Amino acid sequence: MAEPLKVVVTGAAGQIAYSLLYSVAKGDVFGYDQSLELNLLDITPMMEVLNGVVMELQDCAIPLVKKITATDDPNVAFKDVNAAFMVGAMPRKDGMERKDLLKANVKIFKAQGQAMDKVAKKTVKVVVVGNPANTNACILSRYAPSIPKENFTCLTRLDQNRAQAQIAARLGVTTDKVTNVIIWGNHSSTQFPDVAHAKVELNGQVVPVPEAVKDDNYLKNDFIKTVQQRGAAVIKARKLSSAMSAAKAACDHMHDWFVGTKG
């Protein structure tokens, strides 16, 4: 078995991390023969909850997990890590815009960036999940100048997965049959889902999505609005932001970055 990868998850006592950690631990992200050391970071008031999460991970009895460290100290959490899931951020609530989150999140991501700059591996791969993800990634990179800028990414995969799922549902196929969906712009309501180059496998034939859908009005209007507003729709229905789907998207993102994509 390969040497353990060190992986940090911030906001580790929260909802997204709760869905994310099991997938990471059992090998969905880094491979089923890749052992792991998990560093779980959260704020001091959440440490009791985080200890409960650690108990559950232990009780999963996953052989790949060699060590679990729960901490409220960024310098401990980011020490020598190979990969970072930056999940922790001030949560967005019903009626809030992402700009409302900026002030609190600058403080969080500045401190974490400084710790990462000091103790993380310079090759660390970082995916920022906490919103506003694009801005938070920029802040993190700014305060970790010794780590290459290309090592900092933010989560657009959730939007990609949402767009892919909408097209698959429209055409009555599974999501793996839809490929090459593109999301332009920020992870926000101004994003632009683009299927101009997307393909779909129908009845054994691969065809362009616009040709398969045969409805330009849908693709230019309802499809785009549905994807743009999906996060707000989830909040309105659940009274909480997307967690399970965000965790799955973060895992997809990191997996494809570390392991590669098909074809």
TrEMBL record:
- Report the residue ranges that make up the Lactate/malate dehydrogenase C-terminal domain in this protein: 156-262
EC number in record: 1.1.1.37
Residues reported to bind substrate:
R92, R98, N131, R162
Residues annotated as the enzyme's active site? H187 (proton acceptor)
- Outline the extent of the Lactate/malate dehydrogenase N-terminal domain: 6-152
Annotated NAD(+) binding lies at D42, N105, V129, G130, N131
Reactions listed under catalytic activity: (S)-malate + NAD(+) = oxaloacetate + NADH + H(+)
Q: Which InterPro entries does this UniProt record tie to the protein?
A: L-lactate/malate_DH, Lactate/malate_DH_C, Lactate/malate_DH_N, Lactate_DH/Glyco_Ohase_4_C, Malate_DH_AS, Malate_DH_type2, NAD(P)-bd_dom_sf
Query: Which terms in the Gene Ontology molecular function aspect does this entry carry?
Result: L-malate dehydrogenase (NAD+) activity
One Pfam family of this protein, by short name? Ldh_1_N
Q: Which UniProt keywords apply?
A: NAD, Oxidoreductase, Tricarboxylic acid cycle
Its domain of life?
Eukaryota
- Give the enzyme class: oxidoreductase
Family designation = Belongs to the LDH/MDH superfamily. MDH type 2 family.
- This one is known as Malate dehydrogenase
Q: Name the species this protein comes from.
A: Biomphalaria pfeifferi (Bloodfluke planorb)
